[in-house]
Amino acid sequence: MKEIYSFDAVKAENFTGTLLDTLNKMALAFMISIGHRSGLFDTMSHMDFATSLQIAGQANLNERYVREWLCALVTGAIVEYEAESKAYRLPAEHAAFLTRQAGADNIGVFMQYAAVMGEVEDEILKCFQEGGGVPYSKYHRFHEVMAEDSGQSVLSSLESHILPLVPGLTDKLNAGIKMLDVGCGSGRIINKLALLFPQSQFTGMDLSSEAIFNAKAETSQLGLQNVEFIIKDLSDFHDTAPVEQYDLITTFDAIHDQGKPLNVLKGIQRALKQDGIYLMQDISGTSNLEEDKNHPIGPFLYTVSSMHCMTVSLAQNGEGLGAMWGEAMTKEYLKRAGFSSIEKNKLTHDIQNNWYVVKK
Ligand SMILES: C[S@@+](CC[C@H](N)C(=O)[O-])C[C@H]1O[C@@H](n2cnc3c(N)ncnc32)[C@H](O)[C@@H]1O
Question: Which of 155, 207, 310 for mutating ligand 1's site (highest number of atoms within 8 Å of CB)?
């Protein structure tokens, strides 16, 4: 039976504050996304206090829209305002997290997920009522935003932090090895590795023809000869994976949203050479909600999971593990796939992911 307790007026008051704050931040997420996509933050980062006309002129955008956007950001305490001259400025301390120049610190990139998710709200609601999932094809900008996301969070630290997780790996890549990236998306990581290590051979596999098209376009643009991309549904990878072919296999944020994650992991185990390494990046949940309650981006990750990761898997009649399946479950799946050595690492700049170095 539900316990009867007295209504706490202070708690209620605080909660309305939380809700109003959420409403404002939801709105700002869209404005930040537009600031990123339109290049407005980049433009403003090179300007001192300026009028909306000057900012719109520099950015080559419509002044009326730019002015309304600036008002939202002034009320959101992102942009500073000088009333007398009606001038706006993006302070350097804010530009440090909102511009392309900020590299891996550009949080504006992630704000794009608000619109990516909003686009499928009707379909998600239908799933709440009827079950099932929303397929990748319903998300018009997912692969583009994902490529930008991993381009920023993985590419920027590939040589400095990620490759060093496996001692001697850079030397092996220099000497020449075979590497496979599973669920490679738009292939930016593989293309960068192929450029850095011309002696090695790289393969990327993914379900999405759109993502593989983008990956191949970049390969051609870079003039690379040592990389191939294959469109493949990996749900049966446990049966179809080549046997002991690769020295290094990677997955970047790509296991939990598979239709059949265990089959994919079994396929990776099968495709890996005896002394090969499987390097896996996945979301840093714990598998316990009581612990994840305090995750610094818990609401964001569970929301992205509900409105993307879990549902795209369910749309494949899959398991729908969800982005926050967590470390305990990840290790259990890796063991069930036949791996015996699993080492979890954290990168200090990366609050979102765990990095597992896995051996047969
Ligand atoms: C979150 S994205 C990560 C993409 C890429 N690794 C990156 O970091 O940019 C997950 C990828 O898994 C792919 N995927 C999902 N289900 C799949 C399946 N059944 N077979 C092959 N790839 C699949 C998606 O197309 C998507 O590109």
Answer: 207
Provide CATH 3.40.50.150 ranges for the chain.
115-359
Which residue, 215, 61, 45, 37, is CA-closest to 113?
37
Ligand 1 center–CA 186 separation, angstroms: 9
**34-88 confidence digits (pLDDT tens):** 999 999 999 999 999 999 999 999 999 999 999 999 999 999 999 999 999 999 9
Residue ranges, CATH 1.10.10.10, the chain: 9-102
Query: Which residue has tokens 């990236």?
Result: 181
Topology given in CATH for the domain delimited by 115-359: Rossmann fold (3.40.50)
Q: How many angstroms is it from 178 CA to the middle of ligand 1?
A: 20
Identity (one letter) of the amino acid at 339? F
Ligand 1 site residues (CB inside 6 A) read 136, 146-147, 150, 183-185, 206-208, 211, 233-235, 252-254, 257-259, 316
Helices (H) and strands (E) in the chain, counts: 17, 9
Residue 273, classed as helix, strand or coil, is strand
Cα separation, 351 vs 55, in Å, equals 34
pTM over 0.85: yes
Å from CA of 29 to ligand 1 middle: 25
User: What's the rounded Cα separation, in Å, for the pair 360 and 358?
Assistant: 7
Q: Could you tell me if 305 and 352 are in contact, meaning their C-beta atoms sit under 8 angstroms apart?
A: no
pLDDT at position 1 is 56
Please give the CATH number for the structural domain made up of 9-102. Answer: 1.10.10.10
Could you read off the pLDDT of 103-135 as tens digits, one per residue? 889 999 999 999 999 999 999 999 999 999 999
Which letter does DSSP use for residue 228 in this model?
Answer: E
Are 66 and 55 in contact by the 8 Å Cβ rule? The answer is yes
E strands within 40-101?
80-82, 87-89
